[in-house]
């Protein structure tokens, strides 16, 4: 699990652990990481997924610990919103580096062991914004749409080895990432959602558990939309 010290990632990690999985997490804030590890009994390292060598070292360490990695959830994500006209190169690059290149780093590091074991699941957390677009989020939309292409291509590359690659595209989920919205913005968003409310991290966790389970053994290269009907 990448980026699992809070929000959707933490909910997913807890659900996977409740289903009997041994869970390892990462995040950049070491203090929070240590707190979450101690509270839930997860393994984990303070790793920035944008750092290729740190990711490779983390996966080597986990392989030494466990001997196999069965499920990877590429969840770490950030936003740096702003209109394109004023977007800095740094805001563009950071969002691409974490949301898209981070998934590349982690997937590349685990794919060889998964190929050897002839099984594995990679679940990429995209966004409704990657499908519908969102003004002020060209960087984030590009990264999240990129993750969908990445998911489909890698699914084709690895299917013959029994590896399944899928994505989840959440809509508006109550986490720190959406906490910056004003009450007025939140009310407007809710008015656009057919189910009438924003989602909870556990709504996404349920979809991840399905994609990690035997019930999804014949599904690869697909996206599950968890958005209350926001995009139909
Ligand atoms: P939060 O901001 O609540 O949590 C993000 C998590 O990712 C934190 O644990 C954070 O820890 C970690 N993280 C961020 N950057 C990095 C990095 N470079 N390397 C490692 N870990 C990192 O976000 P959400 O839970 O809301 O989002 C989770 C995922 O779901 C993201 O990919 C997001 O884009 C996606 N999503 C969220 C939606 C929402 O409405 N909330 C909607 C659609 C998609 P730390 O800061 O310590 O590194």
Summarize the structure.
This protein is an alpha/beta fold and 232 residues long. It is built from 9 helices and 6 strands, in the order H-E-H-E-H-E-H-E-H-H-E-H-H-H-E.
In angstroms, what is the radius of gyration?
17 Å
Note the main sheet.
Answer: 4 strands, parallel
Bound molecules: NADPH dihydro-nicotinamide-adenine-dinucleotide phosphate
How much helicity do the residues have?
40-55%
End-to-end Cα distance, whole Å, is 28 Å
Main CATH class: Alpha Beta
Structural class: alpha/beta
Question: Spans of 5+ residues with little confidence (pLDDT < 50)?
Answer: none
Q: CATH superfamily assignment?
A: NAD(P)-binding Rossmann-like Domain
Q: How many domains, as an integer?
A: 1
What percent of residues are in strands?
Answer: 5-15%
CATH fold group: Rossmann fold
Order of strands, widest sheet: 3-4-5-6
Oligomer state of the chains in this structure? single chain
Q: Give the integer mean of the pLDDT values.
A: 97
Shape: globular
* Count of DSSP-assigned helices: 9
Number of E-state strands? 6
Second rung of CATH, namely the architecture: 3-Layer(aba) Sandwich
* Helix and strand element order: HEHEHEHEHHEHHHE
Any key phrases for this structure?
9 helices; binds NADPH dihydro-nicotinamide-adenine-dinucleotide phosphate; 232 residues; Rossmann fold; globular; alpha/beta; single chain; 4-stranded parallel sheet; two-stranded parallel sheet
What does this structure look like?
With 232 residues, the chain is of the alpha/beta class. It has one domain (7-225): Rossmann fold. The protein contains 9 helices and 6 strands, in the order αβαβαβαβααβαααβ. The strands form 2 sheets. A 4-stranded parallel beta sheet has the order 3-4-5-6, sandwiched between helices. The protein has a two-stranded parallel ribbon with strand order 1-2. α3 runs parallel beside α4 (89-117). The longest helix has 29 residues, at 89-117. The chain starts with 6 loop residues before the first helix and ends in a 6-residue tail after the last strand. The structure holds NADPH dihydro-nicotinamide-adenine-dinucleotide phosphate (NDP). NADPH dihydro-nicotinamide-adenine-dinucleotide phosphate is lined by residues 2-9, 26-29, 32, 48-50, 75-78, 98-99, 102, 125, 127, 170, 172-173, 175-178.
């Amino acid at each position: 699990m990448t980026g699992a010290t809070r929000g959707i990632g933490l909910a997913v990690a807890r659900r996977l652990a409740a289903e009997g999985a041994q869970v390892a997490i990462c995040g950049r804030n070491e203090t929070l990481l240590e707190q979450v590890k101690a509270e839930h009994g997860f393994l984990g390292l303070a790793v920035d997924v944008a750092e290729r060598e740190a990711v490779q070292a983390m996966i080597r360490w986990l392989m030494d610990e466990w001997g196999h990695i069965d499920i990877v959830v590429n969840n770490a994500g950030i936003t740096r919103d702003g209109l394109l006209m004023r977007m800095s190169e740094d805001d563009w690059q950071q969002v691409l580096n974490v949301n898209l290149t981070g998934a590349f780093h982690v997937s590349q590091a685990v794919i060889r062991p998964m190929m050897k074991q002839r099984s594995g699941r990679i679940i990429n957390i995209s966004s409704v914004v990657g499908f519908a677009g969102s003004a002020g989020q060209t960087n984030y939309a590009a990264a999240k749409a990129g993750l969908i292409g990445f998911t489909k291509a890698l699914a084709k590359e690895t299917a013959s080895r029994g590896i399944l690659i899928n994505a989840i595209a959440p809509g508006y989920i109550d986490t720190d990432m959406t906490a910056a919205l004003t009450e007025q913005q939140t009310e407007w968003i809710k008015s656009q959602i057919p189910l009438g409310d924003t989602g909870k991290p556990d709504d996404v966790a349920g979809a991840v558990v399905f994609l990690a389970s035997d019930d999804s053994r014949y599904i690869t290269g697909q996206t599950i939309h968890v958005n209350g009907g926001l995009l139909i």
